[in-house]
Design a protein that fits this description.
This protein has about 325 residues and is an alpha+beta fold. Helix content is about 20%, strand content about 25%. Belongs to the peptidase S1 family. CLIP subfamily.
Length: about 325
C-alpha cells in the first residue's frame, strides 16, 4: 500500500511540474502572440556589421534547421527550415511532404559545416570558447501543413514542423529567428541555405546571397512557359546585381538547388534578423542567373503560427495528467 501511495504521489508531482511548465509558457503569450515568437532572444546576430559573405560564418545562421529523411536504416539530411519557437520549425509543404528519401524523421539544429564533427572558429583552435556546442538531432513529432495549401497554384506553401522535444536554445548556435509582421515591408533581402550545383553537390556551409525583389510582370517575362500564381503576398526575387555576373568557372556561380524552405531575411534597425519569407520554388535546374524564385511571405500567416502553437500548448495543458 505504501508503494502505491508513493507512486501516486510521484505521478502528482510529475503532473504538477508538467502543468506548471505549460502554464509558464502560456503566461508568456500576449493577446497577439508576440512574446511567444518574436521574443527578446529571437534573431540575435553574432556579428555587428550588416554584411553577409557568400560563405556564411560560424554562428551566423543559428536558426537554420536541416531535415533528416529516413528510409530503413539510412538517414539523409537535405533541405531546411527555420526555428521560430523552441519546439516548432517553419518550412514549406514541399519540404515537409518530400518522400524521395523516406519519411521526415529528424530535425538537426546547430549545424554549420556538414563535413566536420565539431564546428570551430578556426580549424586549429581547440578551445571551447571558439567552438560550437554539439548539434541537436530531435525527432519530428508531427507535420502541420497550412490547411489551404494548393498544390496546383503553389499557394499557402507553408508548414509547421513540431519537434518531439524542445530544442536547447543556447543563444549561440541555436536561436529562433524573428518573424516579420509587416506585409508591406521594404528592405534589403538575403537568403541562406546549404545549396549547390549537381556537379559540385550541396555546399558544406550555408551559402548567403543578396536578392532583389521584382514585379509580377517581370517575373512572368523571365519565366516563359511557366504559369505563376502570386497570391497572399507571394513575390519573386532574383539574385542581386553583384551575383549576376557570369563566372568563368560555372561551379562558382550562385545556385539555389537544394535551398527549398530556406529563408528570405533582412536586418532591421535593432541589428536583428527578421524572416520575410521562404523559398517556395524556382526554375528548373540548371537555373540561369537572371531567372526568378518564388517566395512565400510569412507576414500573412503570423496569426496562424501563433494560433497553432497556442492550441498545441493548450492541448498539452489539458493532457498533462493523462
Amino acid at each position: 500500500m505504501a508503494r502505491i501511495f508513493r507512486f501516486l504521489a510521484l505521478l502528482a508531482i510529475v503532473g504538477f511540474i508538467s502543468n506548471n511548465y505549460v502554464n509558464a509558457e502560456l503566461s508568456e503569450i500576449e493577446s497577439d502572440g508576440s512574446l511567444l515568437l518574436n521574443n527578446e532572444e529571437c534573431g540575435k546576430r553574432h556579428y555587428e556589421k550588416p554584411e553577409f559573405p557568400v560563405d556564411s560564418r560560424l554562428f551566423e545562421q543559428p536558426w537554420l534547421v536541416r531535415f533528416g529523411f529516413k528510409r530503413d536504416d539510412l538517414v539523409i539530411y537535405i533541405f531546411q527550415g527555420l526555428l521560430i519557437h523552441k519546439q516548432f520549425v517553419l518550412t514549406t509543404v514541399h519540404v515537409a511532404r518530400f518522400e524521395d528519401f523516406g519519411q521526415l524523421t529528424y530535425a538537426r539544429l546547430g549545424e554549420y559545416n556538414t563535413t566536420s564533427e565539431r564546428d570551430c572558429m578556426e580549424e586549429s583552435s581547440k578551445q571551447n570558447k571558439d567552438c560550437a556546442p554539439a548539434v541537436q538531432d530531435i525527432l519530428v513529432d508531427v507535420v502541420i501543413p497550412h490547411p489551404d495549401f494548393n498544390l496546383f497554384k503553389q499557394s499557402n506553401n507553408i508548414a509547421l514542423v513540431k519537434l518531439r522535444s524542445a530544442a536547447n536554445v543556447n543563444g549561440l548556435s541555436v536561436v529562433p529567428i524573428c518573424l516579420n509582421q509587416d506585409p508591406d515591408v521594404e528592405a534589403f533581402l538575403y537568403t541562406a541555405s546549404w545549396c549547390g550545383r549537381r556537379d559540385t553537390g550541396l555546399s558544406m556551409v550555408p551559402k548567403q546571397y543578396q536578392l532583389e525583389k521584382i514585379s509580377p510582370q517581370d517575373c512572368s517575362d523571365r519565366m516563359p512557359g511557366y504559369t505563376i500564381h502570386l497570391s497572399d503576398g507571394m513575390f519573386c526575387v532574383i539574385f542581386g546585381k553583384n551575383h549576376r555576373t557570369p563566372q568563368a568557372d560555372k561551379k562558382k556561380s550562385p545556385n539555389l538547388r537544394g535551398g527549398n524552405g530556406g529563408p528570405i531575411f533582412t536586418v532591421q534597425g535593432d541589428n536583428k534578423i527578421y524572416l520575410i519569407g521562404l523559398l517556395s520554388y524556382g526554375p528548373r535546374y540548371p537555373a540561369a542567373l537572371n531567372q526568378p524564385y518564388i517566395i512565400t511571405p510569412v507576414a500573412p500567416y503570423y496569426n496562424w503560427f501563433t494560433e497553432t502553437i497556442r492550441s498545441d500548448l493548450e492541448k498539452r495543458k489539458y493532457t498533462s495528467f493523462a
